[in-house]
Design goal:
By secondary structure, the protein is of the alpha+beta class. 21% of the residues lie in helices and 32% in strands. The protein contains eight helices and 13 strands. A 13-stranded mixed sheet has the order 1-8-9-10-11-12-2-3-4-5-6-7-13.
């Protein structure tokens, strides 16, 4: 196995649309009530200061931005836990269902293991994203095509400009799984925060619409004259506002993430259940059976065992270096190629 640093995927934007597209679910509608400040949301982690950003986030409300940072801090620095993942994807008039698991060591270790398997009637497709806190690997097997990607997350902190303001969630903890998904949503969508219910449980709801500059970028890079039907133009994230069960655990964790199509893709007229300006669901992700666990041994649970020696892996580290504005010396570049 060798590094493929010049593959076309390596220079694409860091929002990782393949990750958004394969993970998905549906369930119950979110009933929202107007509210913009998380008055009672206390995940037990200090609120982060302003985060690195390629795009300005001033259009999002302060409560929404703060909530995203708190949830990412809960994931990155909170206790170890595992959860089941349920997903649904709607494409080409079909619904595909997948299931998986998520496990993390927490406490700032950056160690996690996410696995999702989906059957579409023609075959099995899998996604695994795993990190031991030093190297993060993403392995996808879609229609028999295996793709391996790696990020040297430990080196990000080494190369970061420490003169810049520090954040509660460091860049290396913002890469992968749910923290990266939330960070990407915060960059690409204008977010609002509201209170609501999900299956009779009190939740905070982050609702977002795609930023105009991102929409323009998607159209330019895709070369299409019409909006891509599977690229979400809005999102909704439900966050547990209270402990999920009698264990007192789960407050502040995401439990449902919806990606919705452009309103132009909606086949039905606007109704109370399907309001104007909201398209149909493309993909839905649910985390359930969330429970605290003792931190597992890294070697046993968070070490990637490569079984695809014939597959060249793509080193994506430089994409994240670009995202955070890191300038490397020639010697650092040579180290990155190892």
């Amino acid at each position: 196995m060798k590094i493929d640093r010049h593959a076309s995927e390596n220079r694409s934007h860091v929002k990782s649309p393949h990750f958004v597209a394969i993970l998905c679910l549906i369930g119950f509608s979110l009933t929202a009530n107007a509210a913009d400040e998380p008055a009672s949301f206390t995940p037990g982690v200090a609120t982060a200061t302003a985060t690195p950003a390629i795009r300005k986030r001033t259009e999002s409300t302060a409560g929404a931005v703060e909530m995203v940072e708190r949830v990412m801090a809960s994931l990155a620095h909170g206790p170890a836990f595992d959860a089941k993942v349920r997903q649904r994807v709607w494409t080409s008039g079909r619904e595909m269902v997948g299931v998986g698991t998520y496990e993390q060591a927490g406490h700032g270790s950056g160690q996690f293991n996410l696995q999702v398997t989906m059957h579409d009637g023609d075959g099995k497709h899998t996604l695994q994203q795993i990190s031991d806190g030093r190297l993060q690997w993403t392995r996808s097997d879609i229609a028999g095509k295996v793709v391996l990607k790696r990020v040297d997350v430990a080196r990000l902190s080494e190369w970061m400009d420490h003169s810049k303001p520090r954040t509660v969630v460091s860049p290396q903890l913002r890469i992968g799984a749910w923290t990266e998904m939330l960070d990407t949503i915060s960059r690409d969508y204008v977010l609002r925060l509201s209170a609501g219910t999900l299956e009779s449980n009190t939740v905070w709801i982050l609702s977002g619409t795609l930023r105009p500059e991102v929409r323009q970028e998607v159209m330019q890079t895709s070369g299409r004259s019409e909006w891509p039907p599977l690229y979400p133009s809005s999102v909704r994230v439900a966050i547990a506002a209270k402990p999920l069960d009698s264990t007192g655990f789960g407050e502040g964790l995401p439990v449902r993430i919806e990606f919705l199509a452009d309103p132009s893709q909606s086949p039905v007229a606007a109704t109370e259940a399907h309001p104007q300006g909201v398209g149909p669901l493309i993909t839905l992700i649910e985390l359930y059976s969330i429970r605290p666990i003792d931190p597992p041994p890294p070697v046993a649970r968070f070490r990637f065992e490569n079984q695809d020696a014939e597959v060249n892996f793509i080193n994506e580290t430089d994409r994240y270096l670009d995202l955070y504005g890191v300038q490397l010396t020639d010697s650092d570049r040579k180290r990155l190629r190892r």
